[in-house]
Automatic annotation (TrEMBL):
KW Hydrolase (keyword) present: yes
Positions of the BD-FAE-like domain: 81-269
Assigned keywords, A-Z: Hydrolase
PANTHER family per record: AB HYDROLASE SUPERFAMILY PROTEIN C4A8.06C, ALPHA_BETA HYDROLASE
Pfam families (UniProt xref): BD-FAE
Protein's UniProt keywords contain Zinc: no
Name the record gives this protein: Pectinesterase
Amino acid sequence: MNFRCPFLVMLVSILFLSEVYCQSYKGVTGISDTSYSTKNAYNHDVKTHPNIKIVSEFHLETVKEKRNVVYCETGKRKLNLDVFYNADKSYSKQTAVIIIHGGGWRTGSRTQHYPMAQKLASLGYVCFTPEYRLSTEALFPAAIFDVKSAIRWVRKNAVAYNFDPNKIAIVGFSAGGEMAAFMGTTANMPLFEGTSCNLDAKSNVNAVVDIDGTLSFVHPDGREGDDSKSTSAGTYWFGYAKAENPKLWEAASPLSYVSAQTPPTLFINSSVPWMHAGREDYIKVLDKNEIYSEVKEFEEAPHSFCLYEPWFSPTIECINNFLTKVFNK
């Protein structure tokens, strides 16, 4: 599928269906959801993987940090990010890496990926960990607008942090992986840019790393949208069940936009097949357009594998090797 061009058809369909069913704001509680955390994920996964170990923050002499930097203000809401960079002045123009956390677009925290940012910074990358508005605060596409704004802020600060503005990679885990792929496939599209911050810069990224993030909300291999036992993360995010507004769910899927403009992409996956729904169809489009991609699957790994050893270190190695290949070829 490739709906990059006929936006009006999709938009009209979404608006029509929106009139049939009222959008639900019941999940916009204004109360933070802390149900997905590294500790909670570990307590669940250690039952089936007793040898796993949480990767804690590193304290590396070469890595400098700036935390809680405001990248956008929307109304009274200040959105923050953190910066991790190598203090070694011998590095020439570096590569920027923006890391998007997971948690079903509703929970989770950017702090979960501080170890990843610190480790990549030690290898010479300039890393950024932005927050974004979750579905307890605002519905889709608010989070998309936020991440696009963060990309634009990062690009505007290339000189300040000594990286090449044409070497910006986005890495995301789970819901963050879906959004990372969405950033890669919807570069500079007015429909998804928002109107708040940093509009004098471009939102395109030059490489994507999707760690166990779905490529499609409507793919038959996926499981997002099952509300039979409780409201699904997707239903909370969109404010519509899948049956109520399937076109919106399709419009939020990276697979709907993958094209000749999509950047090189690395897929790093667990052993949970539905967490990479749409991956093979996505890669077919990349292959057709001669766009480089890689797949790394960790057998028997749980969904939150990148937060633990023994998978954290090889995940970092995969990302480093991929970005080295893409940007230094």
